[in-house]
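Entry:
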Amino acid sequence: TAFFFLSSRCMLEVHSYAHSEALFMIPALATIDRLGRFVEGRAGRRPSFWAACGMSALASLDRYVGVSLIFWGACLLLAFYRANLFRRLGLALLYGLASGLPLALWMLRNFTLTSNLLDRTLAFHLPSRDQSLYGLQTVASWLVPEPFPKILQFAALGAVLILFAGIELRYRVVREKRQALWLLSFMLCYALVFAGYLTLLSVNTLPVSRHLSPLFFTGLLLAAVVLHTVWEKTPPQNRIVRPVILFVAMVFSLSY
């Protein structure tokens, strides 16, 4: 996983420029880990909660789309924390306030100095067909990089989604492995928040790798959790499965 993470074209592209996406990964992963530990009820729950608030605040100051972590964390606490409804609502509100306060102060500073909160013009415009296709092509290029044809890239993306659905039906990875659930739920929240960003604040932006890189590194970790679970649950008599996993990993690495 570390080799794929460091050597992939997506990560090399993101880290080769002075963009904020590379720095965003550190507090984002820390937030997912700390808040997941808090929800699971592991030792040191209170420090984990406040650490998640701090890391989420740093991620939001680094990138405005870091609000996806605030949105994700509040949803996670509401849906999975084991307590009564009022307790969950209170925790979600506290998390949102603690995580969002630094960003709110920064936006207040922007408004005071420039009379503009985000240096963006608010305009409603649903993501275009070209933006949607470009985003899908960006994700597909992580599996089959250029100069391979687009049809092959989209076919690989479709095959991976079908394979993931089949593995989930067979091994119940997301339903049994909390790490997989946290990663997948964050990916969905990030995609929703980024779609909202395109809809309201940046109608002409094309979703390139640096914009979608959080989906790459969380997706890669999710793939590691899924493959590890399949490896563990494969019975000894089905010995062909483990060589297949190794072969797929080797082909994937050679594509980079």
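The mean pLDDT is 84.
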